[in-house]
Amino acid sequence: MQYKIMGGLNTMELKRCARCGKFYASDVEVCHECEKKDLADLSKLKGFFADNYISGVSKTEISASTGISARNLNRYLGYEEFAGIYIPETDFGTGVEGKKAEGKVSL
Ligand SMILES: [Zn+2]
Q1: How far is the centre of ligand 1, averaged over its atoms, from the C-alpha of 65 (Å)?
Q2: pLDDT single digits (tens) 3-48
Q3: Cα of 54 from ligand 1 centre, angstroms
Q4: Which pTM value belongs to this model?
Q5: How far is the CA of 35 from the centre of ligand 1 (A)?
Q6: 3-class SS letters over the chain
Q7: 5 CA to middle of ligand 1, Å?
């Protein structure tokens, strides 16, 4: 989350990279170095959904097939583009049982 202060100086906020934890100044979710890794992971993830996706496949299986870490996978699956994909929430201990996402899958 980021908040812009209106009416003052245009201050670039320091954010913490969602991937490596490094502080950086940007308006995206991850730092510059991780942005490339994110893009590579996302293309693998999209490829996985396009080629191997079976409804109800667990995050553990996706993680094992794509090599994407559980933490990153959780972050990507929160993206709007994956909103229509149903993934059981049970295996990473999120406490949310089988959250069914509504929407259209557009890959
Ligand atoms: Zn980073």
Answers
A1: 23
A2: 555 544 556 678 899 999 999 887 788 999 999 999 999 999 999 9
A3: 31
A4: 0.66
A5: 7
A6: CCCCCCCCCCCCCEEECCCCCCEEECCCCCCHHHHHHHHHHHHHHHHHHHHCCCCCCCHHHHHHHHCCCHHHHHHHHCCHHHCCCCCCCCCCCCCCCCCCCCCCCCC
A7: 24
